[in-house]
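Lecture 7 notes: from sequence to structure.

We start with a single chain of 499 residues. Read the sequence below before looking at the structure.
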Amino acid sequence: MLRAQDQTSAEWLAEVTRPEEIHYLKYFFFLKNRQGGEAYYCEHGFSEREPQTGFFELLQVNPGDVPCPPEWARGLVYYQIFPERFCRSGLHPNRHPLDDWNARPTRENYLGGDLAGIRQKLPYLQELGAECLYLTPIFAADFNHKYATTDYFAIDPDFGTEDELTALVQEAHSRGIRVVLDGVFNHSGVHFAPFQDMLAQGEASRYRDWFFPKRFPIAMDAACYECVGDYPYMPRLNTGNPEVQDFVLSVMRYWIQRCGVDGWRMDVADELDTACVQFLRRRLKAEFPQALLLGETWGDATRMLCGGDQFDSVMNYLFRDCMVDYFAHGSIDESQLDERLQHMRMKYPEETSHYLYNCLSSHDTARFLTEARGEKWRLKLALAFQMFYPGCPALYYGEEIGMEGENDPGCRGGMAWEQQDEELLGWVKELIWFRRRHEAVRRGAYRTLLADPDKKLFAFERRTDGETITVIFNSGDRPQDFAAEAGTIPAHAVKIIPS
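Now the structure, written as tokens:
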């Protein structure tokens, strides 16, 4: 079957069965076009005669050669939470002056969200249909975003205690919701004890090889050491150092063992040393085979996914780019959307595509409704596309109730509990629970049916052996006919046809 096709290439899937067990397989291709032309294709290229050498080979496959993410993570619905801005429980003394919950978000202000607040809202998240919470960093750190870690073995006092994390995870599990933590291992904060030791001891520090110093003596200056961007308060960790690798592994093991978390989203994962990621996966999966490893990247993640020895999944910003350009901005048409989606699909194996973290917004982007200039119909169609497309739809907190916000820090406002768009919230719940009820949407094969720039129609199907779901999007400003069984698709609408 044809899996995906763009302007330059196509990818086909076939299942080969033999009565006897096969250990090694040699093969070539026999091609025939619609005009009756025939050709053979092998390692030597095209020829008119059946090849006698130059065969392609499929050698003995080892278990580690095959991507094997935990089955529970296939096609699930994520919900990303920025803990400082989700819900304030009022159970902890405030270490910082707190702004009004609805204050404009800045990189300096605090609103007081915490772990107990998240736990209080678990009934809401369960009713919404969320299946896995991704929490941005919760460990002791500088700044409100907590991406400058100072102690990897302590919950930041702004958020609560280790016992409160355990209680949150346990109750989430009782409601059928997994919990994934954010591991900031590409860099630390400047108040991380090993970095402080290097500041104090200079070249004599036993931790000098944990970082990338450029010159001594060290001052808190990006000219003195490598850091994230040019932010001197986030020095890069040397993840190629075995001591650092052992340290990171100890952190990951600690929180899985102590609090029962279900996995890790790894920050700036595409800049981690490859050998480090392979080491972490090998050691962690040996002990916790069901732990999820989700990597952050903004581009092509082929090297991170296709070897089966690094990540189970990645944040699929390529998908977000397609959704923003088509639904929010209207800067590409239906055929261009299909071209980009097909090109994206061919980057990864079919099985891997069902685990990709498909987001519309995140803590590092403008919110989708802001990208769409406040036009709600654009967000509704994008949400429907996200929920029916292969992979794992990922909601950023507040997306389901129509929150807006420019890029960081504007996208990190307090959750608008008192200003919810109930119609939009109902729409999102309906989409999520439809997805959860239908295996074809969660696990089925994908096929584009129509990409028509003239009619502004885009249609695809999701199929299993027992079910087919057809989804038709009309992004134009007038009704359009699709097929007899679909009838007329209203303007700015989507129609879903199960069969």
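The longest helix spans residues 242-259. Keep this in mind for problem set 3.
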